[in-house]
Specification:
Number of helices: 2
Largest sheet: none
Low-confidence stretches: none
Length: about 70
């Protein structure tokens, strides 16, 4: 089982990699696109955080409090 610091490091590396990929994309490209086959980068950034919260923090941390439970 991974330790807390290892999980944090993986999250930070994943988030940084995603941000680096988005760095050169215009602001307009970060929002909903007119093509149904395209997911906006903004969604991917949020999904990275949601994934770690839903599948790592909530099930395995007894002290974790959701930022927004809705």
């Amino acid at each position: 089982m991974l330790k807390k610091q290892e999980i944090l490091k993986i999250f930070q590396e994943t988030r940084t990699a995603t941000e680096n990929l988005c760095r050169e994309i215009t602001v307009e490209d970060h929002v909903i696109q007119s093509i149904p086959d395209v997911s906006p980068p903004k969604w991917h950034l949020a999904h990275t955080t949601w994934f770690f919260e839903a599948f790592i923090l909530k099930p395995y941390s007894t002290t974790y409090q959701e930022f927004d439970p809705l």
